[in-house]
Amino acid sequence: MKLLTDLDAIRTLTQGRLDNRRISGASGESISFRSVMVCGGTGCTSSDSNKIIAALEQEVAGRGIQTQVEIVRTGCFGLCELGPVVIVYPEGIFYSRVEVKDIPALVEQHLVNGKPYDKKIYEKTRQGDELLNFEETDFYKKQVRIALHNCGVIDPEVIDEYIASDGYRALAQVLTTMSAEQVIDTVKRSGLRGRGGGGFLTGLKWEFAAQQNKPQKYVICNADEGDPGAFMDRSILEGNPHSVIEAMAIAGYAIGANQGFIYVRAEYPIAVQRFSKALDQAREYGLLGDDIFGTGFAFNIEVRLGAGAFVCGEETALIHSIEGHRGMPTPKPPFPAVEGLWGQPTIINNVETLANIGQIILNGAEWYAAIGTEKSKGTKVFALGGKVVNTGLVEVPMGITLREVIFEIGGGIPGGKKFKAVQTGGPSGGCLTEEHLDCTIDFDTLTSLGSMMGSGGMIIMDEDTCMVDVARFYLDFTRDESCGKCTPCRIGTKRLLEMLDKVTSGKGTLEDLEHMEQLSLQIKNASLCALGQTAPNPVLSTLKYFREEYLAHITDSKCPAGVCKALISYEIDAELCKGCSLCARKCPSDAISGKVKEPYVIDKAACIKCGVCYDVCKFKAVAIV
Questions:
Q1: How far apart are CA 32 and CA 26, in angstroms?
Q2: pLDDT by residue (tens digit) across 68-96?
């Protein structure tokens, strides 16, 4: 049990540093040590947070305050639209959209003189002359972080920090004090359901695999996050990779497996790098490999990279890809828990599902089951995107309403626009309306409304969105991503898309609407896997809730939102036009002509309807007709 003793020693040595990363509310002048947390997630990294870190390190070293300041590259804080994000503890001062040129003043004012750098403070933390702790803002105060519990708190590339935040305690507890049956019973009683979209009870899946009397079994982590706009799994792997490793080992012990695989898309280079590094660290510490904690239990994990095929999110297609075959689904049963990877019992859980396991073991099944609703326990991570003020990542308890997420946490619709719809569940989800805003977010409610939980994408749309075009966009995606194995999906989605193209081009008929509904139901009922079975959801939900928009396209040859190019044109209001010539200079087809300081005109025959003139006009003289 020497490993247990070693882990306790690591916790003791590292705990003080982590304790400092807590909001104390102490006055700036009395603080002797600060932690500067810089988001190192993909979003902020793409906004040059690495340069922010380098500039901070250089500035801190130049002022000789290295012993008073630690600079930590951490995982996602959630408010991705505000990146690069920097948070200074223990005050919890939240800085947004930080630039390299801000660093000298930030270091001088805050880290040296103890006064917050006013220029880059997140505006929502201001309350009169006072600064709120960022956790008290509308974006954070209703969140409950379980799957994301270490993201933004620890350096994901330092295993000691994960251990100091109770990391690998759950694995130690499982291996030294619990039987496999007790582990499965705990997960079952927690009510945890799969967060990858299916919503199947996790403990029951583990139980099925455990009951198989086979010498070889496998654990697979599905990190093939393919939904447009979804980045929940990526953020967990980037910010807390050891939580997934620990959970996979626990799952292996529970079902009697000694080998795990994580299937992650190659388009996630930061996630792959951090997870691979975490694997090396876990092996070095004896937390993976043979005889873990001296119990005789052996478990290892290998990384498999996916090429980005959306269909490989389906478990049998994913299995075939790992085996080296083309990623295509097969009929079920048999289910993977009975006959999976290389014909052996296999459990497949997605990243977010696994990220809950350690916390369930440590805090108990009853603790987790007390969060959420009767049939949907715990929390759910959502990626908020589209026409919403606070785009980013949130984790909320099941049972919260769509209104709370969109208008309180999300901050509502920007620009004073009116809310129109929200799509949950990615390209396979449905579009819900204003009348659904007070509905609870849980597996069964969303399904009953014609949408789905999915893996956690949540796209918000405003009054300028054409719902027919939205349905066409998502169906175009699923048509492209169909593996082509079954006829209903391969041909049905193509025919359905053709009918949507007719409608958006003003050539649709009322009979097309009837045919679209019939074909959608046939695709749902006859497709082999969930890709085809859910592909028509955007079409069916928009036909149900926004039928008047379809009718406007067909009967009036009009796109109410002014989006479908075939049904709109651009005109310049002579009374509003100031003759600045900006529209003419920006027009890519030279369709606008006129004299400076006189009204300009658009040649509709030459106009390609790109909308550039509409976007650049400062006087709102260009109108969509």
A1: 11
A2: 999 999 999 999 989 899 999 998 999 99
Dihedral sign (CA 213, 217, 223, 226) = negative
pLDDT of residue 156: 96
pTM more than 0.70:
yes
End-to-end CA distance of the chain: 75
| Model confidence pLDDT, tens digit, residues 460-514 | 999 999 999 999 999 999 999 999 999 999 999 999 999 999 999 999 999 999 9
**Enclosing domain of residue 296:** 159-370
Cis bond before residue 90 (omega within 30° of 0): yes
Amino acid type, 43: G
| Structural domain contains residue 154 | no
Residue 139 included in any domain: no
Dihedral sign, Cα of residue 464, residue 466, residue 470, residue 472: negative
CATH number of the domain bearing residue 406: 3.10.20.600
545 Cβ contact partners less than 8 Å away, ≥ 6 residues apart: 421, 431, 432, 433, 450, 467
The rounded distance, in Å, linking the Cα atoms of 39 and 87 is: 9
Evaluate whether residue 86 is within a structural domain: yes
- Of 370, 392, 409, the one marking the end of a domain is 370
Judgement on whether residues 436 and 534 belong to the same structural domain of the protein? no
Q: Tens digit of pLDDT for each residue in 237-275?
A: 999 999 999 999 999 999 999 999 999 999 999 999 999
Q: Are residues 177 and 41 in the same domain?
A: no
Q: Indicate the burial class of 583 (C-beta count within 10 angstroms; 0-12, 13-18, 19 or more).
A: buried
pLDDT value at 426 more than 90: no
Please compute, for residue 98, the number of CA atoms within 13 A of its CA located in the half-sphere on the CB side: 33
The tally of domains found in the chain comes to 5
What the block records as the tokens of 619 is: 């006087």
Rounded CA separation 386/429 (Å):
15
Does one domain contain both 386 and 366? no
Assign 3-state DSSP to the chain and report helix, strand, coil percentages, each to 5: 45, 15, 40
Same domain, 259 and 363: yes
